[in-house]
Design goal:
The structure holds 2 protein chains of 2 kinds. Chain A contains 8 helices and 24 strands. Chain B has one domain: Alpha-Beta Plaits. The chains are: A alpha/beta, B alpha+beta.
Chain lengths: 411, 63
């Protein structure tokens, strides 16, 4: 997505040279959020569900403006020389550039578990989702390791499909890092009310194969000794930035690609980064470079990065205003629409501004509709997370976060 | 310009209404109402709305 948006923005900003997009996946760019929801949950009676059918359901529209973009799909970049200004692809092709956009994103972290591999899944690509979808039937025993956004959404989808679902979360509470303990506990209760078993403070110690087929998963053993029958193990335990192709260029690749507020990679004027991989400072949040893995970021950073690159290539000054994109994120679980703005993970305390996080959800998760939680650093509002807010409510609190962030910029 | 929203895909995120408030609004029930033939002066905002829709349900006539 980052690469696509970068190309669109370069061309929208009147770039008239050649744009080449290199991607490791064979597919044209597509939208990932449906992978843990609609794609997994879709009806199973479509006998002719080809990869093409699924891809077309999630593919990004192709603007006419990018008709001349060159595509190198299924051939990832494997090395680069930023001094010689070249990128080498897996098939050996060497591309020379005047400007480089780094948008290679993330790959899922895997659990280090020897033993049966069949039955283990991640959800990052369309191929992952289709492979997993084929294995989710009513009664399938599903273990989801990692109770973050992806894990919780996938667990909810699997549960709705009639699977027996266990979330295994090493921290004390699911979603604790992005949402904090109170909100995490409310979501835990929603999951449990729908029959998902939530195990916290533990991880998977060992996987066990079947007596008849040892290469196929049949159980997992947790670090507290609990044994759970399992047909499917979904690993949603975070990601690694795809930076290896940039080795050897003297860059700080310790956590994505380090950028300035113009999205330039370590002040190199001809190399910018976009999306999940970009570690960039935001003056509204203390100017500490960080990666933000929200869906809005590829689009927002692509605009900034394209403007920076175009300015360099046409020898003009770049944009003069600070870049401070408002983080925006959502999650759909058991009929609840979670909507967040800002950086709730930076808070030192919360305040429930509307509704009641302790509302009983045993009958119906929608008892939590309208809940609004404010996240604060001292007295400063840094984020807000809402459940199924009305448009008026959502706008009110989004604007409150925007105002609070703007105050930091002008302070 | 011509704008089309696939209501089968729309999931009421309302990001379009933030990006292009003159063209997209969420009604009191949280459902989307929109102008199918907005003025061309709104093209940038509508492109932005199409970009930020989390389910990519907005389509522009590109003629």
């Amino acid at each position: 997505m980052g690469g696509l948006r970068a190309a669109e923005q370069l061309i929208a900003n009147k770039f008239d040279g050649i744009v080449t997009i290199v991607g490791d996946e064979k597919h044209m760019p597509y939208n990932r959020p449906p992978l843990s929801k609609d794609v997994l949950a879709a009806e199973r009676d479509e006998q002719n569900s080809t990869l093409d059918h699924w891809h077309s359901s999630v593919a990004f529209r192709q603007r006419k403006s990018i008709a001349d973009v060159r595509w190198r799909l299924g051939s990832p970049a494997v090395s680069s020389d930023l001094t010689a200004k070249t990128v080498t692809l897996a098939d050996g092709e060497v591309l020379h550039y005047d400007g480089l956009v780094v948008a290679t994103g993330l790959r899922p972290r895997r659990l280090d578990l020897p033993g049966p591999q069949s039955g283990r899944h991640v959800i990052r690509t369309l191929d992952d989702a289709i492979g997993l979808r084929a294995e989710l039937q009513p009664g399938t025993r599903v273990i989801v390791v990692g109770g973050g956004f992806i894990g919780c959404e996938t667990a909810a989808t699997a549960r709705k499909l009639g699977c027996e679902v266990h979330i295994v979360e090493p921290m004390a509470v699911p979603m604790i890092r992005p949402l904090g303990e109170e909100f995490g506990n409310a979501l835990r209760r929603v999951h449990e009310a729908s029959g998902v078993h939530v195990h916290t403070g533990v991880s998977v110690e060992e996987t066990v194969g079947g007596a008849d087929d040892p290469s196929r998963l049949s159980a997992v053993i947790l670090t507290d000794g609990t044994r759970l029958g399992a047909d499917v193990l979904i690993e949603s335990v975070g990601s690694h930035p795809n930076v290896e192709w940039l080795d050897g260029n003297d860059l700080d690749l310790s956590n994505g690609v380090l950028c300035d507020n113009h999205m330039r990679v370590e002040s190199r004027p001809d190399v910018v980064a976009v999306g999940d991989i970009a570690r960039f400072p935001d003056p509204a949040t203390g100017n500490i470079p960080r990666r933000i893995e929200h869906w809005c970021i590829p689009t927002d950073t692509a605009k900034r990065a394209a403007a920076t690159l175009i300015a360099h290539l046409s020898d003009e000054p770049g944009p003069d205003v600070p870049f401070s994109p408002l983080p925006s994120f959502w999650s759909d679980q058991f009929g609840l629409r979670l909507q967040g703005y800002g950086s709730p993970g930076d808070a030192d305390h919360i305040s429930v501004l509307e509704g009641d996080l302790a509302a009983p959800v045993d009958q119906d998760p929608s008892a939590l509709d309208g809940t609004v939680v404010g996240y604060y650093q001292g007295s400063r509002l840094v984020g807000v997370v809402m459940l199924s807010p009305s448009p008026v409510t959502a706008r009110k609190y989004r604007e409150a976060v925007e105002t609070s962030r703007a105050a930091v910029l002008t302070a | 310009m011509d704008v089309r929203v696939d209501y089968g895909m729309c999931q009421d995120h309302g990001q379009c209404a933030i990006a292009a408030p003159k063209v997209f609004q969420m009604d009191d029930d949280g459902k989307l109402v929109y102008d199918k033939h907005p003025d061309d002066s709104q093209r940038d905002e509508v492109e932005e709305a199409a970009d930020v829709c989390p389910v990519q349900a907005i389509f522009l006539d590109e003629s």
